[in-house]
Amino acid sequence: MTRDPLTRNPNPQGKGLVPVLAHWHALRPHGAAAKGPAELLLDLFASTLVLSARCDLRPVVGQRYYLYCDLGRDLERGLDKDDSGWRLSLISPAEWGERAPGRCLGPCWLREDMTWALDAEASLAADAGLRERVAALVQDFLERLDVDGPLEFQLPGYHRELPYYRRLLAAGLGASLRQSLAAAGASAVPARETLRLGAAGLRRVALTAPQPPGEHAKPCDASPGTTGDTPGKQPL
User: Fold this and answer.
1) 14-29: b or e for each residue (b if 16 or more CB lie within 10 Å)?
2) Mind listing the pLDDT tens digit for each residue in 88-97?
3) Which of 144, 147, 183 is nearest to 52 (CA)?
4) Rounded CA separation 197/210 (Å)
5) Residue 109: what are its φ and ψ, rounded to 5°?
6) Which residues, other chains included, contact 116 with Cβ-Cβ below 8 Å and sequence gap of 6+?
7) pTM
């Protein structure tokens, strides 16, 4: 039988069933806990920003990556954009030197619950261009969630059109935040109520003002294990 060339291949990257299941197991959320409105919005914003970035590698839990932004590109929003101007890299700004793919927003890492932590405080304090770009993204993010119905309906899911690992990570993120909502007894809470309770907290952290030296700020290209892993620290 000749295959219809117009029939869409459900597995265009040629992943066999066993590797797919193994990757999904590795990227399933573990330890998702109850979260308040501000923390949940912060995790959703930071994670979808990282997942919108071009990424040519398989993210590993706990590994330090760096998020770069090409401010010369027009603002593109959403997980489904082919090139949002953001790029996720293992290479620090110091290692890139003048060849860096953009301005570094900060180091980030994947947590076991499949949300992303992003330590952008120092870069936002020092770089007006990045502050302006992130402010626009935060505003767009909040407007997209200003809808009728539960926040649960607005969370990421399985997007067939996404590249393979981003597809799994988006599904894992959505599952994690749904578990957090359920643990908090907030699965049916309207999205607008979550915004009312948590939007100010998101803006305060995502658009942080400069902090006293040594108290919170840290260099973007800090070496692994020296920043962002301190218990109690609340990165993006």
Assistant:
1) eeeeeeeeeeeeebeb
2) 999 999 999 9
3) 144
4) 24
5) -155, 150
6) 43, 46, 47, 50, 51, 108, 109, 110
7) 0.78
